[in-house]
Design goal:
By secondary structure, the chain is an alpha/beta fold. The chain is built from 5 helices and 4 strands, in the order αβαβααβαβ. A 4-stranded parallel β-sheet has the order 3-2-1-4, with helices on both faces.
């Protein structure tokens, strides 16, 4: 069984396999600091849009930059492991930037999913 938690560089060949099979890669990202049922529902709905769901998780450093010095509550390795344990999640990548643009540009997902709390245009 392939590990679900990989670096961006390790995920690139997986992305090529997905594309070669003609499958749709679904991408989402977030801090997922305190995972709750809303996250589980959101991720299951995202996975239903395609064949493979990859979740990019903000590193501890980037969560602090976004949400302040008291966050995250849950360390990045635990957040990544919890997400990877969900059946609907096929892959998890931890990233260090405050926004996921570099990851998105590298992966070029078929479908990009964001929660309703984010505007369409920044």
């Amino acid at each position: 069984m392939k590990p679900k938690i990989v670096s961006l560089e390790e995920f690139l060949p997986i992305r090529e396999e997905i594309e070669a099979k003609g499958e749709k890669l679904v991408f989402t990202n977030g801090c997922f600091d305190i995972i709750h049922r809303g996250h589980a529902r959101y991720l299951a709905a995202a996975r239903a849009l395609g064949d493979y769901l990859v979740v990019a998780v903000n590193s501890d450093r980037s969560v602090r930059a976004i949400k302040g010095p008291e966050r995250p509550i849950t360390p990045e390795d635990e957040r990544a492991e919890l997400l990877a344990a969900l059946e609907c999640v096929n892959g998890v990548v931890v990233f260090d930037e405050e926004d996921p643009y570099r990851v998105i540009r590298s992966l070029v997902p078929s479908i990009l999913v964001k929660g309703g709390d984010w505007p369409l245009h920044k």
